Amino acid sequence: MLSTGPDLRLLRLLSCVTLILLSEVTEAKKDLKSACNTCQQITDNFNKGFEKTAKQNFGGGNTAWEERKLSKYETSEIRLMEIVEGLCDSSSFECNHMVEEHEEHFETWWFKRWWFSVCCPKGTFGPDCNACVGGSDRSCHGNGMCDGDGTRGGNGKCSCVHGYSGEFCLDCIDGYFNEVRNDTFSLCTECHSSCKTCTGATNQDCDECKEGWEDDDQEACVDVNECSKDPPPCTEDQYCLNTEGSYSCKACDKVCSGCTGAGPDKCQTCGSGYQDRDGTCTDIDECSQSEPVCTEEHQECVNNQGSYTCICSEGYEEQDGECVQTQQPGEDT
Ligand SMILES: *[C@@H]1O[C@H](CO)[C@@H](O)[C@H](O)[C@H]1NC(C)=O
């Protein structure tokens, strides 16, 4: 019956939530925060009253006869009235108003504990514990979650698991097809990767091909080779890599000017500073060419990948584009 600690805490929580919800319905514009404070105060006082009256009885004490013939004080309306009387300061209009407005609910709760319960049986939802779509045994036909399932809240709408759609979670999303289906049961299976929509599992069962795939002469969806398209989809310093349903563009090796694949041996032509040697583009050593490339006086040539630089020889330094002898410290010229 009424009395235990956890029960009381539950009441404390639930009654407030419930009262606020009720207040919301009846007086939508009401200041919720103030209503909540008042409600909190009411539940606190309800708890206090509940504890205070816990040890009391009908005055003379419950005799065995009273307990059999009359109701016990513990569960009596007299006890409830005593508790309700202590809920508000007589000066607090809002508090008294709220209690008055919901007095009926205190009574309902007092005599039918279920009213305050937050829970509904599994597969049911809402204030009246209505069955979810598809019935409480297989809510949302086993393919989704019923909003508020197992609680006094929610609207019972299904959120379908991946692959399923519709109000009843019996339809399949694009990319899935109904392998099995009747009015109460549905099994959605993924289409072949080439299909946007389909009626079966193979690439011949597509209703429509996915992007990157096209119908062949057997009405099957096959991969489109984007790399052989005209104009080619990649830029000049890239090569194209076809993949199932798509393609990608990869950078050519830096020694190439245009290429057909990765590496210095897949160049169409060699980039500047490189020359073809046995099918591979290799660096040209400009410094060892018969015609010297660094022509200023006291200049030296230094080769690097794809190019070269001219630097001043040892003992010289660059000044206004010329190599002049370095001044040694303390040395007079
Ligand atoms: C629907 O299909 C399921 C699974 O095949 C089966 O168990 C169920 O009896 C069928 N229901 C109807 C109404 O045909």
From TrEMBL:
<dbReference type="InterPro" id="IPR000742">
    <property type="entry name" value="EGF"/>
</dbReference>
<keyword id="KW-0106">Calcium</keyword>
<keyword id="KW-0677">Repeat</keyword>
<feature type="disulfide bond">
    <location>
        <begin position="160"/>
        <end position="169"/>
    </location>
</feature>
<dbReference type="InterPro" id="IPR000152">
    <property type="entry name" value="EGF-type_Asp/Asn_hydroxyl_site"/>
</dbReference>
<keyword id="KW-0256">Endoplasmic reticulum</keyword>
<protein>
    <submittedName>
        <fullName>Cysteine-rich with EGF-like domains 2</fullName>
    </submittedName>
</protein>
<dbReference type="Pfam" id="PF07645">
    <property type="entry name" value="EGF_CA"/>
</dbReference>
<dbReference type="InterPro" id="IPR001881">
    <property type="entry name" value="EGF-like_Ca-bd_dom"/>
</dbReference>
<keyword id="KW-1015">Disulfide bond</keyword>
<dbReference type="GO" id="GO:0005783">
    <property type="term" value="C:endoplasmic reticulum"/>
</dbReference>
<dbReference type="GO" id="GO:0005509">
    <property type="term" value="F:calcium ion binding"/>
</dbReference>
<feature type="domain" description="EGF-like">
    <location>
        <begin position="283"/>
        <end position="322"/>
    </location>
</feature>
<comment type="similarity">
    <text>Belongs to the CRELD family.</text>
</comment>
<keyword id="KW-0245">EGF-like domain</keyword>
<dbReference type="InterPro" id="IPR006212">
    <property type="entry name" value="Furin_repeat"/>
</dbReference>
<dbReference type="InterPro" id="IPR009030">
    <property type="entry name" value="Growth_fac_rcpt_cys_sf"/>
</dbReference>
<dbReference type="InterPro" id="IPR018097">
    <property type="entry name" value="EGF_Ca-bd_CS"/>
</dbReference>
<keyword id="KW-0325">Glycoprotein</keyword>
<feature type="domain" description="EGF-like">
    <location>
        <begin position="128"/>
        <end position="170"/>
    </location>
</feature>
<keyword id="KW-0732">Signal</keyword>
<dbReference type="InterPro" id="IPR049883">
    <property type="entry name" value="NOTCH1_EGF-like"/>
</dbReference>
<dbReference type="InterPro" id="IPR002049">
    <property type="entry name" value="LE_dom"/>
</dbReference>
<feature type="signal peptide">
    <location>
        <begin position="1"/>
        <end position="28"/>
    </location>
</feature>
<dbReference type="GO" id="GO:0030855">
    <property type="term" value="P:epithelial cell differentiation"/>
</dbReference>
